[in-house]
Records
---
Amino acid sequence: MGNVVMAIGAHIIDAELTSGMLLAKHAMAGDKIVTVALTAGERLSNRGGMSCEEFREMNIASAAAFAKALGGENFVFDVPDGELFASKEIELKLARLMREQKVTHVLYHWRNSRHKDHEQASVISRYAAYYAALKAMDIDGLQPATIKRKLYAENFEDAIGYEPFYFFDVTKAFPVWKEAIMNFYAARNSSVRYVRYYEALAMEHGNLIGTDYATTFTVDECRRRVVQEYL
Ligand SMILES: [Zn+2]
């Protein structure tokens, strides 16, 4: 379909868990997918005895393997886990990547979260997309990105005020996602059973729209409008 869908997470595995099923669906439809982690998530408490540095390297390899399984690309920023802060520098760095990748769609964290990195990632992603598309903003001579849509992903850590709005049937993509997500250590070993949670959530949302699996996204309240001509 000629789209480039970028999913951005605060930590490695955030975007893959929350947006991964839709990324798999778009990859299967011929779109390019790009995953970005603003930190490597190397300070996860259960690292199975690995040092943060060892865990970081393994996590980066897993994120690359996930993107490769979907025929896409992955980027991990060099920011320490837990120390993510919005700034012009990081917003422009992400905007530059959006322009280089010719991104058309951006998926990112909902604005409220119990995790500070997630809240910061939401702000960074939003303003990076703004800068990427802003024609009057020069970023090393790169063409502005034509961003058609920006959607917030559903993440149980970002549940405060999140209301599902867009539902996507991901039934055919689900097995592709399930195989790819098992690349991650946290998917196989965490005390939080992430894959089980997101699988059950997709089944629940699927029930609501009459499919086996569905994934949801939302937009700010002020953008939730349906324009109609009559009745
Ligand atoms: Zn996270």
---
Amino acid sequence: MPSRAVILSVLIVMVALCIDVSQSAKIGLYADPNHTGPILAFHTMRDRSCYDLDSAEDNRASAVNTFGNCFILFEHPKCKGRQMKVKPGEGCHANLKQCNFDDITSSYRSC
Ligand SMILES: *[C@@H]1O[C@H](CO)[C@@H](O)[C@H](O)[C@H]1NC(C)=O
């Protein structure tokens, strides 16, 4: 029979995981249209802070997968310059070129 402390710990961890999942947003950036080519970035954002692509990933993205989340892509580092919102039903996920956003993404944040 597990002690009350163990049950409580498990509950706290489960609640913490739920909060984490609800606040995190996964994104994938691809070098070629239709989510093909090298993957430039694939990670989970934990907050709304700006993420700068590094020099090898900069100005190369041609497609984005937001995994159902809302993101804003930016032309310049530190989330500056032209921007494009991508979320389900909005933005050119499979081909950024259709939104005049091909090979220019330098940073992004979740929205
Ligand atoms: C992306 O996929 C669609 C649907 O399969 C296709 O019509 C289109 O030509 C593809 N675009 C590119 C740039 O490969």
